[in-house]
Design a protein that fits this description.
two-stranded antiparallel ribbon; 16 helices; about 70% helix; about 375 residues; single chain; mainly alpha
Length: about 375
């Protein structure tokens, strides 16, 4: 039986579609959210005003939003660079953990007299290397045996989480602070903590924005980026043209893992100030995938999308403070995430009702 709905690729889309569909999806989400809030007995206008005040109204609110957006930008970039080549790195969460483990080791192992610029540079380098090597555990089977990278990167997330939990909760490792009554990580020295800009906002936001600009330049202005996009469009044609698909698979996933790991460095050095598994397991790596999808894998687009999603997330506690049930808050946030993400489907595809055989016969008879 033929489906009554026909889905066709749009091909080249104009600005009205590229910008109109996401705006329409957001408007639709806000309308549905207003209906849900009204059914739950809450004032939708007050709720949306509270969301704006909590996330964007004033520097204090903006700094909280930017602090949450910092790791989202980096994990969004990690997913975006892989998606450019049609390689699907779902392991950003685990790579973030490895970055946090590597960076905290450096911060605790180097002498407390180490100058801050040298200390932070070493933490970034070691953390990025840890994430890149972790990603290569999935990249090598993908490059040499065509193993499904979605499965391997996803499974590596659980291994990385188990490793981090074991270091703090299941062992007397170098990372664990034996003086604490409740298991937790050793606190990093002051020279291993990223300087604060305001409250929880630290210089990690600068690193994230610079990384976005650099990645855009790398993908759009270099031959390496051209080859990545070409392989993503047609691996066979790229191979015939002499491009090394295997090598590019390794380098793309390694770069993706390094970017996700830098998010872990940013969190452990700028927010938790030690290896704290509970504080680090907030699904930032998985949310980065949503960021990359909504941003259409554009590194520059990752920045505003991350800020938008962070603004929605930071408003949750304030909504609860005005009496909105936590389940309604989570439903509202999830609805906005889902609708905006689903809207991307309509950017690249047109949906219409297919003509049935009966309709086609009537049309031919009328003619």
């Amino acid at each position: 039986m033929r489906s009554p709905i026909r889905v066709m690729p749009r091909g080249v889309t104009g600005p009205s579609v590229r910008f109109g569909v996401p705006v329409g999806a957001l408007g639709f989400a806000l309308l549905l959210g207003a209906i849900i809030l009204a059914i739950a007995g809450n004032d939708p206008i007050e709720a949306y005003r509270t969301m704006f005040d909590a996330s964007l109204n004033g520097w204090k609110s903006q700094s909280r939003t930017l602090a949450l957006a910092t790791p989202l930008i980096l994990t969004g970039l990690a997913a975006a660079v892989a998606f450019q080549m049609r390689v699907y790195n779902i392991g950003g969460e685990g790579q973030l953990y490895l970055g946090a483990i590597g960076a905290s080791w450096v911060g605790l192992a180097l002498p407390a007299s180490t100058p801050m610029p040298l200390m932070l540079s070493a933490m970034l380098i070691v953390g990025a290397l840890a994430g890149a090597l972790w990603a290569l555990l999935a990249a090598i089977p993908k490059a040499y045996f065509n193993a499904d990278e979605i499965i391997t990167t996803l499974m590596l997330n659980f291994i990385a989480l188990s490793l981090m939990n074991w270091l703090i909760f299941g062992s007397r490792s170098f990372w664990r602070d034996p003086r604490r009554p409740v298991p937790g990580g050793k606190r990093l020295p002051e020279n291993a903590v990223m300087p604060s800009i305001s409250g929880r906002l630290h210089i990690g936001i600068v690193i994230a924005v610079v990384a976005a600009v650099f990645l855009w330049w790398l993908l759009r202005k270099t031959s390496w980026g051209f080859q990545i996009r070409t392989i993503g469009d047609s691996p066979r044609a790229a191979s015939y043209a002499g491009m090394s698909v295997r090598l590019k698979t390794l380098t793309v996933l390694a770069l993706s893992g390094a970017l996700a790991a830098i998010a872990g460095v940013s969190e452990v050095s700028g927010v938790t100030k030690g290896l704290e598994p509970v504080a680090l397991t907030t699904n930032i790596g998985f949310t980065g995938i949503i960021v990359a999808v909504v941003a259409r894998s554009n590194p520059l687009g990752v920045v505003p999308v991350s800020i938008f999603l962070a603004a929605i997330a930071t408003s949750g506690s304030r909504l609860q403070s005005i009496g909105i049930n936590v389940e309604v808050v989570l439903l509202l946030q999830g609805l906005i995430f889902l609708t905006v993400t689903a809207g991307e489907f309509f950017v690249t595809n047109s949906v219409s009702l297919a003509r049935t055989d009966a309709t086609a016969t009537e049309t031919e008879a009328a003619a």
